[in-house]
Every structure is written in structure tokens, then in C-alpha cells.
Amino acid sequence: MLKKYLYVFFIAMVPLIELRGAIPVAQAFKVSDPEFNMVLAYVVIAVGNMLPVPFIFFFARRILEWGADKKVIGGFFRFCLEKGHKGGEKLKNTAGPGLYYALMIFVGIPLPGTGAWTGTLAASILDMDFKKSIIAVMCGVALAGCIMAVISFLVAAGVTAAV
User: What is the pTM of this model?
Assistant: First the structure.
């Protein structure tokens, strides 16, 4: 049983997949094993999704800036920095004083590229306040988790009803 929780924990840490992929996997575990605790799985997944966030906030931009002038990786790193800066400035201008709410909603929309990794990187590039950014990202992760839990439950219920 521990292996299943560790499995979803590590899935939640993977960029682009994050919580959006871990919750459906946990739901599949629940369907195949009624003993699997979804509440515990949700907590494990949220912790796994949030664990990389401080490292991303403090180090990702520095690594991208360091690699921007390197021969092999420079183009990709510059692309990431430019895209993050351009998107961040657009978000800043659009959201105005509601920037942290916009960050929360951005992270909370369960689509590829809108998770905790991307939101935290944008907050870092924009030099947003660490504590407020982490709270916004955490709330966004909770929102995305609720949305994915409902979708996964409905899909699992439909699949089991069809069988």
C-alpha cells in the first residue's frame, strides 16, 4: 500500500504532470483497491506537488539566467526566461492589485503548463513576494486538486457503472 502512496507522491512532483496526473492515478488505485484512502492520497499528492516550489522560486531563475549564454542549452533557457517575463508582465498589467489572486487561479486551472511549477517560476521571474506567492500557489494547488478530484471521481464512477 505504501508503494501506491509513494507512486502518486512522485507523480505529483513531475513538471507538467503534477497533481493533474497524480489524482487520476490515485483514483484508479481506489477503484482497484477499496482500502486505498483517497483523503490521505490527496494530502500526499498536495505535499508532493508543493515540495519543489521553494526550490523553483529561489533557484530556477538563477539556473535559467546562468544557462542563457551557454552554447547547447542557451536558446532554450533564453526562451524560458523571455516567455516567463513576457507572460508575467502581461499578467501583472492585467491583474493589477489582484496579482496574487491571478496567480492562484492560474495555478488552479487544471491544464498542462498552468501548475505549481509554472506559477512559481513566473512569481520568481516577476520578483513577487515569496510568502504571498507560496500561499497563492498553495491555494491554486488546492483548487486544482478539488477540480481534478471531482473529474476523476465522475470518470471513475462512469467507468465502473459501465462495467
Answer: 0.86
Per-residue pLDDT of the chain (163 residues; tens, 9 = 90+): 899 999 999 999 998 899 999 999 999 999 899 999 999 999 999 999 999 999 999 998 899 999 999 999 999 999 888 877 777 777 788 888 899 999 999 999 988 778 898 899 889 988 899 999 999 999 999 999 999 999 988 887 777 676 6
Number of domains in the chain: 1
Find, among 14, 50, 47, 11, the residue nearest to 27 by Cα. Answer: 11
Task: Write out the DSSP string of 71-98.
Answer: TTTHHHHHHHHHHHHHHHHHHHHHHGGG
Distance CA 115, CA 119 (A): 6
d(CA 87, CA 118): 11
